[in-house]
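Hello,

Our lab assistant flagged a job as stuck in the queue for most of the afternoon. It eventually completed. Since we weren't sure the result was trustworthy after the delay, we are filing this so someone can double-check. Below is the sequence as submitted and the structure that was eventually returned. Let us know if re-running is recommended.
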Amino acid sequence: MSHIHIDLISDTATRPSAGMWQAMMNAPTGDEQRGEDPTTLALCEKVAHLLGFEDAVFLPSGTMCNQIAFLVHCRPGDEVIAARNAHIVRSEGAGAAALAGAQIHPVDTPNGIFSTKEVAPLMRPQRDRAPVIRMICVEQTTNFGGGAIWPIGTLQDLSALARTEGLVMHMDGARLLNAVIASGHPASTHCNGFDSAWIDLSKGLGCPVGAVLAGSSDFIRQAWIWKHRLGGAMRQSGVLAAAGLYALNHNIGRLEDDHANARLFADLVTNTPGIRVFPEIIESNILFLDIAETGKSTNQINAALLKNGIRLNAESATRFRVVTHIDISREQIQTAANAIKTACIS
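-- returned structure --
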């Protein structure tokens, strides 16, 4: 897809910057399996401190972070409470069931956020024929909920309920740092009361690969067992970990630029005949466009956009997802917005 120069399909479309490449080339490395890779150790220590946990482990992907968390926390027959439109429900190949033997109890919510009002009625006395409710999982920010940010109060209330009921709290923090910048609350505050959480390095932070899962020392010890079972250590992983360290040192504050660009895109396409923007208030770097009223399909619109090197993510025949990121400038947002307006009304 070398002809694509404005790629709004996902914030995973980012490429390493010159500074990140330099950090990767200069990274001191060692055998990760033996605990001898200094760059990976530094990354894990930094993320554990950032999120407020004792320890952390470097993994290839955020999906692997979620699946290892299920494998450590859950047993076959356990139940995980999560939003119906959460990433673990829609985009992880039913991994919780396939690997950990855990089923997900979905909570209906348009923006991916639920409260104790929805969860408390799900609590039930344990009996032999019922699944064991084991975990509450939240996704910060909500991918398919339009980048909505869980309020700190809601997270604290759910954590209090979990403690009362003896449940585990896990955070899918794929875009946690977007929530940090938008909310003004540190990551450790968002993770307070959680048993495990992770951040993705390959989305808004601009790294080519990787995520870091954090928790207690005992949790990470068990997570390492599953890391080996699912594929093993990454050996001289410092080459990749260096990108993560660079990103955490240089790319967190600028996430606000992505949020501003998402709001700008929404403002530019709002009031275009046939286009509806969701959510009405853009909180981070994700938004959706419903084009059903244009009478055209997303395939038709994307075909027109691709001629100009622009790409959006078609969620359905009438719905686009738009995700801003480090490789998209304000000027490119204006170009893309004008292009989709033209494609929809022409």
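-- support follow-up --
The delay was a queue issue, not a problem with the job. The result is valid. The first strand starts at residue 6 and ends at 7. The two ends are 26 Å apart (CA to CA).
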